[in-house]
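B., you asked whether I could sanity-check this one before it goes into the benchmark set. Here's the sequence:
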Amino acid sequence: MNDTIQDLWAQRILEPRYKNDPELQKDVEANFIQIRNTVLQNAHVVAGETVLDVGCGNGLIAFEALSHVGEEGKMLFCDISQPLLEHCRTLARKRGVLDQCQFVAASADDLSLIETNSVDVVTTRSVLVYVKKKQQAIQEFYRVLKPKGRLSICEHIPSLMYPEPPNMFFGYCVTPIMPITQKIRAVYEQIEPPEVGNFGVHDLWRFVTDAGFSEMHLGLLADVLPSTVRHGSVVQKPSWEAFLKWSRHPLVPTVGEAISQALTADEAEQFTSYLRPLLETRQNERRSALAYLSGMKLEQVV
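And here's what the prediction gave me:
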């Protein structure tokens, strides 16, 4: 990936994703913590081990893993984004754990900077879905693991979430304006990288199996939930301007960019007039599909 894409990842991860919607931001952060805890629980990290977190981002998994490995353990932060690695380095320094940490600028499918049979655990969260050479990435995970080392990952499964039904647009019912929203949808269909949109849970299972992992476990959690079912009262209505700046990931346009590409001024006005009230009153559904997968590297035969 080029530097621009790397910076986009850093911007997306380091800035609150829904800073103009405090309720949703709180839910998202709680969900991230739940994912982190499940990934580490499935990894069975113990004191004194070396853990590699691939696509470490802001260090969500890595810093919690440090509390599991203790003072004798070691943490490898790995990411393609140098700004994210520097962010994690700064946090490690502030927390007084810098001497236990190593920072590796690398993509998931090329971990050549990390020695073979050198780590006890590999973790990832929403990384493989954006990698073109997924099988190669899994093979790299297998290579760097010690015999009986463990893999524990969580991945979004876009093939279970998208494409949405024709009358839905990012969770909103758009039946009255389907011809307009189809034009916006076409922008995403043309640009969405195939390695993202076509990624299915069966692919994930096959990649890990073919790499040679054993004792594998796969759990799938898929939900379609109405946003109107929330905890507590609505404190602040969602921001339309924030919605226009939102994208599912940095490899596709924001909603506002897609509108500019696809619609005339009149169509954009119709789209806004219809969808904005639905957004500001949370009349949408939230779709998600997560796969948790863990496995063990076979003990080498001498």
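One thing to flag: The longest helix spans residues 22-43. Otherwise nothing jumped out at me.
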